[in-house]
Amino acid sequence: MEIAVLGYGTVGSGVVEVLNLNKENITRRAGKDIHVKYVLDLRDFPGDAVEEILVHDFQVIANDPEIEIVVEVMGGVRPAYDFVKECLERGKSVCTSNKELVAKHGAELLEIAKQKRVNFLFEASVGGGIPIIRPLNQSLTADEIMEITGILNGTTNYILSQMHDYGYDFDTVLKKAQELGYAERNPEADVEGYDACRKLAILTSLAYGKQVDYEDIYTEGITKITAEDMKYADAMDASVKLLGIGRREDDKFFAMVAPRIIGKHHPLYSVNDVFNGILVRGNMLGDVMFYGSGAGKLPTASAVVADVVDAAKHVGTNIMTLWSSKKLALSSSTDAMNAFFVRVPAEEKDAAAAAFGTVREVKAEGVDGEFAFVTEKMTEDAFAEKSRSVTVKNRIRVEI
Ligand code: HSE
User: Fold this and answer.
1) How many whole angstroms separate alpha carbon 128 and alpha carbon 315?
2) pLDDT score of 334 more than 90
């Protein structure tokens, strides 16, 4: 079976490497030999064996009837969307790791694949090497998914873990993460939560079978989390994690990405460093958790190649994926109920008690001059209203 790879960056070169390294096993599992006929990239790679199969013109791939599967690992919406759409329309299956593309055009591309009896597969778009898309589509189908809670971004999880374990502040760890190559030079998509938001949009769209627009998901990043916040979290036997949460309550659906304080007994507490973890709650199954490398060359390539094997095994058959383009109306995040950890100046202790009523005080060694507490659960609106009478230094939602 002839395939083509669009993009020879980190993941693209990983895909070629995985196919070479595990060739025998992959051939056995796919039931056929999988051969990379073309790699598309704008760049040249002098001295790399890829030179022999490198093309710069996408049409060479689109026009070649021998190519049955196309791997799209270029990233970004354009031109990836145009290339993927054309491949599907021409009867070629596509496997992608591109979360921006899947979050924005997933429903439409799945519909084209269905009409053309090919497949559009995107296991690597969420959780890197962790199998989560296939379980949602094929294994957890007896359940109503009540909740998905995920640590969906490795970069921010690394930063928060370092802040928690070593007491560093955000800027120091971000710099270190950039030096180690975990964080991009422009880290905005990760640290502002946009990357996690797109991944949550994909997971909730699959869980509920309708389009969840990422623009509708309330998103907060981790840039306002301080070393002092971590000291308080530690004093609570807890840590701060950037969580993407999609939740169903009767006929209402909520989705939010925000940092949260979670206690030692929370299943995601031990998901540290660049790892990802996804906790799924089914109405019959209860909790099931997926853990592993959420990024990186070979883990991500492993998930892409697993999709290639699946596509090779399903030539002429569309693997059903429930994700209609009909929009899922999310309930306003202002209605979501949360407990909050709040820090105010020490002299506002009485004002805080008057505004919030019963609160649990939290003390952290080495942090003075302030009053910190955890509120009862309340709506976001109620919290905003009560906060007006005090000077909030910081506030973090609590999920203990
Ligand atoms: N920047 C992403 C992360 C890469 O840190 O998780 C994987 O999608």
Assistant:
1) 25
2) no
- Contact 148/201 with Cβ under 8 angstroms? no
- Which of 92, 199, 231, 386 is flagged as catalytic? 199
Q: Which amino acid is at 394?
A: N
Gyration radius (Cα) of the chain, Å: 23
Give mean pLDDT, residues 82-101: 98
Which residue lies with its CA nearest to atom 7 of ligand 1?
295
Cα(218) to centroid(ligand 1), Å: 19
Query: pLDDT at position 133, please?
Result: 98
* Cα 188 to averaged position of ligand 1 atoms, centre (Å): 12
Listed in sequence order, the residues at least 6 apart from 75 whose beta carbon sits closer than 8 Å to its beta carbon are 7, 9, 97, 98, 100
Cis peptide before 187 (omega within 30 of 0): no
Percent of the chain with pLDDT over 70: 100
User: How many whole angstroms separate alpha carbon 353 and alpha carbon 344?
Assistant: 11
The two three-digit tokens of residue 320, written as one number? 């059903």
Mean pLDDT of 55-70: 98
